[in-house]
Specification:
Length: 80
């Protein structure tokens, strides 16, 4: 295995997420690995939410939705 904590899907042999502890507490390392594994689903849902909210002008241009768009851009390795 690659990291100190590895996440596997039931039908996939390779790890879908691996986190190296860097002397952090075990529960923090596990939580980080689970977050990394969930990231693709979280990103997809955030994109969907911003699309829905963007349909409502009173909501789609709020600071919160703008922050969601910046988070998406950051996750995709680009600037908002």
């Amino acid at each position: 295995m690659f990291g100190d904590y590895n996440i596997h899907q039931p039908d996939v042999r390779a790890a879908v997420a691996a986190v190296v502890s860097n002397l952090r507490p075990a529960d923090e390392v596990a939580a980080n690995a689970h977050l990394v594994a969930a990231a693709p689903d979280l990103l997809a849902q955030l994109k969907f939410a911003t699309k829905l909210l963007g349909a409502f002008p009173a909501v789609g241009s709020t600071a919160q939705v703008d922050a969601m768009r910046r988070a998406i851009a950051s996750a995709e390795g680009r600037q908002a």
